[in-house]
Amino acid sequence: MAPSLTKWGAFVPLLLVNIVLLNHPGYASAGCPWNAKGLLKWSDSGTWKRGRIPRDNDEVLIESGKRVLLDTQPATLNNVTIAPGAVLVWGDVADLELNVEYLMVQGEFHIGASDCRFNKNAFIKLRGRYDSKYEVYNNRKFIAVAEGATIEIHGRKKTPWTRLAQTIKPLSDLPCAFLYDHSDREANPFAAERRDGMHVIVWREDGTLFDYNVFSPPYAADFGKFVASIPNGKVIGMFAFNSLGERSTDNFKALDNVIVNDLGGQMISKVRSKLDTYSLITRKGSKSSTVEHYKTDGQKEPEGEAFIRITDWNKGVDFQVAKSAATRDQYFRVMSTEAAYPKLELADDVIGWGDGDKIVIASTDFDWEQAEVREIINCRDCSRSQIRVNQAFENPHFGNITYNVDERAEVGLLSRNILIQGVMEDPCYAADGRSRMLCRRFGRDTFGGHVKILRGHKAAHIQGVELYHMGQQYIEGSYPLHFHMCQEVKGSWFRENSIHHSFSRCVTVHGTDNAEVTRNVCYDHLGHGYFLEDSVEQDNVFDGNLGLGSRFGTLLMSDSTREWCKEDYPKKDFSVNCEELATFWLTHPNNEIMNNAAAGGEGHGYMYVFANLPLTKSYKVQQYLGKVQNFSQRHYPIKSFYNNVAHSYKQSGVFMDSLISTGKLADEDGVPENGIIQTESLYDPRDPPGDPNGVRVWTKMERVTAYRNFQENLWIKGGNVNVTFSSVADGPEGFSGGTTGTDTGTSMEYSLFIGRTDNRGKASTYAQRVDTKSGEVVLKHEFDRSYPGNPWKTYTGVSIYQGPVYVKHSYFDQFYVDYWNDSWTEVLGERPVTYGAAVSFKKDSTYPTMTSQYTTNLTFGFCDSEKKHWLFFGNSSLYDWEDLDGTKAAFNVDKDGSLTGTPGVYIIRNHRFFTGPECTYHADWNMALCPYRYIKMEILGKDGNLGNDLKDKYPLIVRRDDVPRHPFDLMGEVRREWAMRTHSSYLVDFNNTVEGAMFPSEIKVYAYGVESQDVVRVGICLPLDTTDIDIRSDYPTVIRNYNHTTVNSLADLDADKNKNAFFHDKKNGILFFKIWSHHDRTNDSQQCSEGNCYAVKIYLNNGNLKKMRTCSEIRYPAFEDKRKTPRIPPIRRCPGGTGSPEGLGAIRWNEIKKIVHQEYDVPCITNLNFLGRKKVNDLGCFVEDTQQFVLPQDFLNAMTRDWCALRCYQKGYRYAGLTVGKTCQCGQSVTMTAEAKDLKGRGCDKACTGNDKQLCGSFNRINVLTTGLA
Predict the structure, then answer these.
(1) 216 and which of 197, 210, 392, 1136 could share a cystine (Cβ 3.0–4.6 Å)?
(2) Tens of pLDDT along 682-694?
(3) Is 612 in contact with 630 (CB distance < 8 Å)?
(4) Do the beta carbons of residue 1269 and residue 1207 sit within 8 Å?
């Protein structure tokens, strides 16, 4: 008997309205469902009991056997339940809206069909609060599809998403975009006018400035005269800056009258508060052209355009007035229509995209919030792969292939003709602790609607639907689209839907196998986006989906911020177990993830992370079903991860690491269920899949494209994962990874790495504060590209970490050293620099590198030089580099010589502990090149200096016998591992200077990477009075019960061939032995041959462990290496010349349909208005005669002689006059009367308010200029 699961099919609501049972013919399942015979009309009173059509607030039950056609607008209902055997069909009627608290489908619900798409507009609105009384099993505000039920929703066919085929420039980078820009104070100094009142601008029909004025309260007749003087056809813009004064005054009424009666405005009378906003634009003489915007104080500005506008498509001019002061000084502007309404080149022909549809264009920079939403407008000259949108862009959006990397921005269609929408409350409401917390964190209602498909449903097909304000933060399990504990759903799917502004995820597959999630768009959502919930879901297909705008939520620790976790778990700090948000949250490898684009968010693009047990409700279900065994997830190969893209994430593009806590296992340290444990995942794929005893196999990630992710583009710390034919570019770290704690590694093959592409992102400014003798100095540098944080940060293609990582058959280009501002050098005391390198090392690693780490067959698009590095290692003097255990012991093997020109060279830290006379130091790389082989020795124990309390206190010091003055110590925070030269000898000393130092009673020595020809002699310093030593080993010789061979000297030990001899120098208290192996490794990822790792356990059965000492001054002859070792020559800068990316990387050129290489730009419009203008002349200073000059204009902050002359010229006046520094007037003649005599330049002594180097008259004095009118 299966465990009891929630079956909503048994639920029946209180019936306020009943359907009368009628005989009916069979329902036609093919074709258009509204044409089926026997459908009863909703609008027919005879359909309903007692002849009453459902009314507002009714609860409706469509009884079994009834088939109802929704043919009219229904009332606002509490809920609708379609009983088992009943059918509700949406009629072929435009703009119907079903407004309910929930819709329970136990029978069938149809809107269109797969072979008859519904092409009209349809709306389902789900309303209600988290405390609504209308609930089913604690579910509210939902559409549910129960056991035995069918849901068929098929919206109009529309292309879900595509990519740009041409780069979009931001408005700021279009030099010919503006014909007038009010914020350009050099061209328009009156932008400095900040007076309260009505700011009015007048433009000519071609967009050039005609006049500008500011009218402050009290409003005199000047405002009416000014408006009356404007010729018909001119475009007038008005913007209310701060207060318009007291509405009760007659002057305010005069303002209203002019705007209403002369200009056709209607909203001005609503303005009351100083903080109300009002703007208007109109064409003089055409009241029908008037557009206004009004917003009360405190009212939220709706999303969308920031300007009202009048567009003249014939002249190619767009006039704009700001809706609010949020645009700063840019209250008024005129743009060319090509700039105001950009035409986008798309990579594909798009179907169904039309006027009024909304799209989102993804960021192609490090900042995902550069994504922008626009509305499509009608475009008569667009092809099927072009669209025109309603406003210019604030950010660049790359639309090209650069250095063979496809970095084209995704363009997702948000609009669909069928809309399922959660109706939200405003303002945010709260009645309990959780709701108050949500209001505090998000500042809005986050209780949206949800669609839930339950186990045993007959069919679920949802396509072409827009889901808006869906999902619920208040409670888990309420998601926009959700297969809930269905177990098996082969044949059910979600296709080509748009989920945006979601409050909890986009698509969830929970306890369900064989679901299809195809070509959906997921934008701006809280929590993980595409979500495999319980680490049991298998054989699901996520194909061709777009996800972007992933924001942190609160439902799980993984998709919550660390700060929020501290608040949510006050008794214990679990913050380290939080903040691993992902657009694609992949908790089981056995799923198909292909052709998707993760296009930006606050966390990761794709995160592979598994649990050791099934999670949440699946735990008990799987105990019964037995399909998913405990600890089996780690042993499944990735079924498919193919042709996926990840960019613009604050963390990683693709991330594979860590474990999900089950909340049930002892080694999880009390971390609650669904917390993230920062430990090795132990991922180890096998054949048969899931079988821990199966054959270890490699699994693939193929054709991955990752770029401009803030941390790593790819972080793959998995087991035997081969990333192949992939493209990685434009990130601080391209690819890094390592083992999962088993004999596994990570491989990168046939891929290309580009340091910096033509996708520069948004220009950035870097500022650095510096303390100098004369005080603090702020240095600033302008970059023509964006950076992921600090520009001092080294950027790399491959960052070698713990390893082993095998990089093969791959190409690197555009990695170079950038000295970006030498003028800072004297102040800083160092030269500002960004180091770039094709191959480098993890800058803050605590894991020493595995000795099996190597690269081979690497090619480069540049030759290695002082400023272009194939490889580079920094030091702690450089930004972001730290001298930790891993960075101190970093190395790589150049297997075929493609890096150094010499095959088999070890590239290792330039420390005498590692190097020898045959090594060569390469200064540009800061690494030594050595001909030796190295193995890895690890020392473990349970007490003394090997106990946990001293693990990060440098408990051990190791010396090589031939260079004893150059010891090597490790902090030991994570691993106590030393890279050791074979055919050498070492002395291990316990550090007696650390607090609490003590000899351990048990010492375990392991060695990795040892081959049959290798040998390393090791001595361990012990207490002088220790005489009873028990030695045990499993390999290379089985040692038990003191059956090891004891020799009497180092010479005897060195001569031993049986590999089980030990020499205890009791005089000096040192135990010697040799590390070696009988076998060779048979594959790259083996740490040891078939698991046969050198292992010796040493037990000290007596001696004073607390009597610490050092053996640092005791000298022994070094192990004699009788082999001849050639000296490594200096590297060959380009041993094979530069390479080619041909055939490498993720791009498939045969699938690229269209690329426009020239960036989008707009042509300049020539202004012909001033071609006949003459030179402006200063006629002198006169006594002011008010009869000769008219049209006074006052600028308190912006008056200049140039502006006044231009203003009067544009109005057709021959003369301009300036008085009291701020007032401009115009006249047709200047008569030299006694009253207006020439003062020979004397008396005009007021500086112009917009230019204090000019004079603009005085009191009763006027500077007169000619305007240039012929």
Answers:
(1) 197
(2) 999 999 999 999 9
(3) yes
(4) no
Model confidence over 857-874: pLDDT tens digits?
999 999 999 999 999 999
CA distance to 1163, 1171, 1175, 1268, per residue, from 1168 (Å): 16, 6, 16, 15
* Tokens, residue 949: 């309390």
Reduced to 3 states, what is the DSSP secondary structure of residue 582? strand
Q: Please state the φ and ψ torsions of residue 479, each to the nearest 5 degrees.
A: -120, 160
What DSSP designation does 1129 have? P
Beta strand residue intervals within 814-867, DSSP E: 818-819, 833-834, 836-841, 854-860
* Tokens representing residue 1268 in the block: 């240039």
Give DSSP secondary structure letters for 185-243: TTT-GGGG---SEEEEEEE-TTS-EEEEEEEPSS--THHHHHHHHSPTT-EEEEEEES-
Percent of the chain with pLDDT over 70: 94
Distance CA 1188, CA 229 (A): 17
Where is 1263: in which H helix or E strand? strand 1261-1266
Quote the pLDDT of residue 13: 38
3-state helix, strand, coil in the chain (%, to 5): 10, 35, 55
Residues 1005, 936: contact at Cβ < 8 Å?
A: no
The Cβ-side half-sphere exposure at 1247, using a 13 Å CA radius, reads 6
How far is the C-alpha of 352 from the C-alpha of 365, rounded, in Å? 29
Among candidate residues 510, 503, 408, the one with its CA nearest the CA of residue 450: 503
First to last CA, the chain: 101
Which one-letter DSSP state was computed for residue 260?
Answer: I
Average pLDDT of the chain to the nearest whole number: 91
- The confidence score (pLDDT) of residue 1238 equals 56
Query: Tokens for 317?
Result: 């001019």
Cα dist from 134 to 102, 111, 151, 407, 492, whole Å: 8, 24, 22, 48, 28
pLDDT band at 1041 (very low <50, low <70, confident <90, very high): confident
Q: 196-217, pLDDT tens digit by residue? A: 888 999 999 999 889 998 888 7
Q: Output the six-digit token pair for 1258.
A: 């005085």
Number of residues that make up the chain: 1270
Read off the pLDDT of residues 808-827 as tens digits, 9 standing for 90 and up.
999 999 999 999 999 999 99
Report yes or no: 325 and 241 within 8 Å, Cβ to Cβ: yes
CA angle centred on 456, ends 633 and 629, rounded to 5°: 20
**Whole-number Cα distances in Å, 164 to 137, 206, 412:** 45, 32, 10
Alpha-helical runs (H) found in 604-738: 618-625
Nearest to 830 by CA among 864, 795, 875: 875
Residue environment code for 666-703, b if the CB has 16+ CB neighbours within 10 A, otherwise e = eebeebbbbbbbeebbbbbbbeebbeeeeebebbbbbb
Which residue bears the tokens 């409706």?
60
Average pLDDT over residues 686-706: 96
Q: At what angle do helices 250-257 and 222-229 cross, to 10 degrees?
A: 10
The closest of 638, 642, 674 to 656, measured between CA atoms, is 638
DSSP for 20-76 reads PP---PPPP-SS-GGG-TTPEETT-GGGBGGG----TT-EEEE-TT-EEEE-SPPP-
Determine contact, residues 1214/1229, Cβ cutoff 8 Å: yes
CA atoms within 13 A on the CB side of 1190: 10
CA 624 and chain centroid, separation: 40
* pTM metric for this prediction: 0.93
Tell me how far apart the alpha carbons of residues 649 and 365 are, in angstroms, rounded to a whole number.
Answer: 9
- Residues β-bridged to residue 1178: 1265
pLDDT band, very low/low/confident/very high, at 1136 (cuts 50, 70, 90): low
